[in-house]
Amino acid sequence: MARRKLIAGNWKMNCLKADGVALAKAVASRYKAAGQPRYDMLMCPPFVLIPAIVEAAAGSGVAVGAQDCHAQEKGAHTGDTSAWMLKDAGCGYVIVGHSERRTNHAETDEIVKAKAAAGLAAGLKVIICIGETLAERDAGQTLDVNRRQLHGSLPDAATPANTVIAYEPVWAIGTGRTASPEQAQEVHAMIRAELTGRYGAAAAQEYRILYGGSMNAKNAAELLAQTDIDGGLIGGAALKVDDFMAVGEGSPK
Ligand code: PGA
């Protein structure tokens, strides 16, 4: 069975409420008007906007997710938000292990794995991000780094139905410098091969593997046409309705 593409918007720390709600309503109505599109759509706003965005997207089929969660269910963790709270607020997904979290908050694979496990335990789908830095790529370590992050971050309860992998080369995030379709496909194929080793060929074929890093309306179709690229995790281009919708609408059949 063909994997259904997932077009996911990572809003990062952008949008006040009025702008976020307007963006979400526009995405929701365009997605709904398209009937039963052949791709899934997801918006991941900042925590504080989640309830408003859940309301704005209600009934459209566009899912809402968060950009991070804590590994514990509750307790003395000032400033943190648990996966159970996200589920309670109407989220269907949570992103974990984004490179900005790994770098700015010193998140290790072990922490990412614990957060992913919490997301699954709370009933969310998780998007686990991995990716090499430019220095690692230049040193010829791309496949090794991604392999290590993949296995280090995947929780035991992962299945193709509840877990999505996002390959995001750090040097391509927010830089306007996209991985070429061939560069991305090489890593995606390695990820699928590793998933095959871990879960068997049938399950590995069902896992969705997203590409992220300066994906936009212009370069998306070529990336999404690659054998093992099953969608996008989109930052900057997800903040403009036309650009975000164009990624999905232009995706190969
Ligand atoms: P970008 O961000 O599309 O702005 O490069 C992608 C991401 O970090 O998820």
Automatic annotation (TrEMBL):
Active-site residue list: H98, E168
Reactions that this protein is recorded to catalyse: D-glyceraldehyde 3-phosphate = dihydroxyacetone phosphate; L-erythrulose 1-phosphate = D-erythrulose 4-phosphate
Record-level Gene Ontology MF annotations: triose-phosphate isomerase activity
GO cellular component, one term: cytosol
Pathways per UniProt: Carbohydrate metabolism; erythritol degradation; Carbohydrate biosynthesis; gluconeogenesis; Carbohydrate degradation; glycolysis; D-glyceraldehyde 3-phosphate from glycerone phosphate: step 1/1
A GO BP annotation: glyceraldehyde-3-phosphate biosynthetic process
The keyword Isomerase is assigned to this record: yes
First-listed, main subcellular location of the protein, grouped into a coarse class: cytoplasm
Keywords in alphabetical order: Cytoplasm, Gluconeogenesis, Glycolysis, Isomerase
Binding site for substrate: N10, W11, K12, G174, S214, G235, G236
EC number(s) reported in the record: 5.3.1.1
Localization annotation: Cytoplasm
A Pfam family this chain is assigned to: TIM
HAMAP family xrefs: TIM_B (MF_00147_B)
Quaternary structure, from the entry: Homodimer.
Family per similarity comment: Belongs to the triosephosphate isomerase family.
Function: Involved in the gluconeogenesis. Catalyzes stereospecifically the conversion of dihydroxyacetone phosphate (DHAP) to D-glyceraldehyde-3-phosphate (G3P).
Protein name per its UniProtKB record: Triosephosphate isomerase
Native species: Candidatus Defluviicoccus seviourii
Gene: tpiA
